[in-house]
UniProtKB/TrEMBL annotation:
The keyword Cell membrane applies. Keywords: Cell membrane, Membrane, Transmembrane, Transmembrane helix. It holds the Pfam family TauE. Its main location: membrane. It is found in: Cell membrane; Membrane. It is a multi-pass membrane protein. The keyword Coiled coil does not apply. PANTHER family: MEMBRANE TRANSPORTER PROTEIN MJ0441-RELATED (PTHR43701), MEMBRANE TRANSPORTER PROTEIN YRKJ-RELATED (PTHR43701:SF13). It comes from Paenibacillus rhizosphaerae. This is Probable membrane transporter protein. The chain crosses the membrane at residues 30-48, 55-72, 87-109, 116-135, 155-181, 188-208, 214-231, 243-263. Belongs to the 4-toluene sulfonate uptake permease (TSUP) (TC 2.A.102) family. The lineage of its organism: Bacteria, Bacillati, Bacillota, Bacilli, Bacillales. GO terms for cellular component: plasma membrane.
C-alpha cells in the first residue's frame, strides 16, 4: 500500500466531507478540484477527470448517507426541519433519472469536457449562492405550494450535469429551491438532503455502469469522508455558517478561475 496516497486521499475525503457537513452540501463542488490538483501536486497520484468524477460520486454518496443518518437522529430529538414528501418524490425521482444518465454518459466524454461542465457549474454555484432566499421560513410544510413542472425539470437537468462531474447537486439544487421555487429554508435543507441522497444512488450506479473507477483511492477517500462529515455537522452548530458560506463562494470562485484558465 502506498502510504502517501493513503494519507492524501483520506485527508482530502475528510476535508471535503467536513465542509459538506458544515454547510449541508454533498461536497463535490469542493472535492472535485481537490482530487484533480492536490494528489498530482504532492506526487501521490495523477487522476483523470473521469477518475476524479467517479471518486467524487462515491464520496458524495457516503457523505449524504451520513447526513441522512444524522438528520434522522435530529428528527427524533425534534430539532430538524420538516421533509416535504411531495417535493422529495417529484424532485427525487427526476434527479435520480438525470443522475443515472449523467453518470453513464460521463464515461463517453473526454476529460476537457468534464472539466468544462464543472467550470460552468462552479460559476452557476457562485451566482446562485449570492442570491438571497425568497421563501418564508415560518411557512408550514403542509401549506407549501410549488411549481411541479419547474421542480421536475430543474431536478432532471441538475441530475444529468451532476452525474457527469460526480456530484449530488446540492450546491445548485438548494439555491434553486430557495430562490426559484421559494421553499422555506428549513424545509429546503431537510428535503434537499433526501433528494441529494437519491441523486447519489443514481450517480453511483451510473459510474459503475460507465466503468473506470480507481478502487483503492476511492476507498481511502470514503474513509476520510466518514470521519469528516460528522465533525462538520457538530462544528456547524457552534459557528456562524453565513460567514463560511461566503468563504465557500470565494473558494469556488477561485477554483472556477483555475479550471477555466486550464481550459482556455
Amino acid at each position: 500500500m502506498d502510504i502517501l496516497l493513503f494519507l492524501v486521499m483520506v485527508v482530502l475525503g475528510l476535508v471535503g466531507s467536513f465542509f459538506s457537513g458544515l454547510l449541508g452540501i454533498g461536497g463535490a463542488i469542493i472535492n472535485y478540484p481537490l482530487l484533480l490538483y492536490v494528489p498530482a501536486v504532492l506526487g501521490a497520484a495523477y487522476f483523470s477527470a473521469h477518475e476524479v468524477s467517479s471518486i467524487s460520486m462515491f464520496q458524495v454518496f457516503f457523505a449524504s448517507l451520513a447526513g441522512v443518518i444524522a438528520f434522522r437522529k435530529k428528527s427524533n430529538k425534534g430539532s430538524a426541519g420538516v421533509v416535504h414528501k411531495g417535493l422529495v418524490v417529484y424532485m427525487g425521482s427526476s434527479i435520480l433519472a438525470g443522475s443515472l444518465i449523467g453518470g453513464f454518459v460521463s464515461g463517453m466524454l473526454n476529460g476537457d469536457m468534464i472539466n468544462l461542465i464543472y467550470g460552468i457549474l462552479a460559476v452557476l454555484a457562485v451566482i446562485l449562492m449570492l442570491i438571497p432566499a425568497r421563501g418564508k421560513d415560518d411557512q408550514p410544510a403542509a401549506e407549501l405550494h410549488f411549481n411541479k413542472g419547474v421542480a421536475i425539470g430543474s431536478a432532471f437537468i441538475v441530475g444529468i450535469v451532476s452525474g457527469i462531474v460526480g456530484a449530488g447537486g446540492a450546491f445548485i439544487l438548494i439555491p434553486i429551491m430557495l430562490t426559484v421555487l421559494r421553499i422555506p429554508t428549513r424545509t429546503t435543507i431537510a428535503s434537499s438532503l433526501a433528494i441529494v441522497f437519491i441523486s447519489a444512488i443514481g450517480g453511483v450506479i451510473g459510474k459503475i455502469g460507465g466503468g473506470g473507477i480507481p478502487l483503492w483511492p476511492t476507498v481511502f477517500t470514503v474513509i476520510g469522508s466518514l470521519i469528516g462529515a460528522p465533525l462538520g455537522s457538530r462544528v456547524s452548530a457552534k459557528i456562524n455558517v453565513k460567514v463560511l458560506r461566503y468563504g465557500l463562494v470565494v473558494l469556488i470562485a477561485l477554483t472556477a478561475v483555475k479550471v477555466w484558465s486550464s481550459i482556455l
